[in-house]
Amino acid sequence: MLARQERIEHYASLIRSCQDTRQGRQLHERVLGSEFRRNRYLGNLLVEMYGKCGDVESARQAFREVYEPNTISWNIMIAALSDNGYSVAEALGHLYLMLLDGWEPNEVTYLSLVSACGHAGMLKDALSHFKAMTFDHRLRPQAGHFRSILDLLSRAGRLAEAKDLIQNMPFVPETPAWATLLSACGTQGDSRQESSSVAQSVLEMRSGSCGSYVLISNLYSAKKYARQ
């Protein structure tokens, strides 16, 4: 039994370290020709490997070969689509297939969906998925979900909503969250009053953080330069 598990982990290590599709296909063939061809753990790793290599079509094929795919399997396939710029509709289609297959989405599923919306600049859809995970599936949004929504709000110039989102996070926001908003203040042509309001919030919520002072300094330097 131990020897069998060691062989599985050997294959897993090879797949994880693979960064080349050609080599990945060779490993894929080795797995299919071995006693582990129906091992879901290795099947999931193959799908993930192809996704990271940007070969989504091979990821699809590997996914079809996964024996009794579970939530992890579906999440990996949806992430492969999202990370490689495929349409939100296609990622969402896999969510529906996942539900039909009897598997409930989790936080990881919705992170891929919200991220896909972020890549496409689809704020309305991202907000819809953000609400669905909270109210329909009783899932608690994590930092990654908030970052994607925050980035979309900031890019859309909806800075007041972005600020409100940060202030109502169920955890203390880190400097990158404020960095996104402060950067938007510098590029969206907002008012000096709004910039000052954001800067004050940073000082209040991130008191003692050197990074906060640097962000604020950069913001005001940019504003001063823009007026010259």
TrEMBL record:
GO terms for molecular function: RNA binding. Keywords: Repeat. Pfam families: PPR, PPR_2. PPR repeats lie at residues 70-105. GO terms for biological process: RNA modification. Gene3D superfamilies: Tetratricopeptide repeat domain (1.25.40.10). The keyword Repeat applies. InterPro entries: PPR_At4g14850-like_plant, PPR_rpt, TPR-like_helical_dom_sf. This is Pentacotripeptide-repeat region of PRORP domain-containing protein.
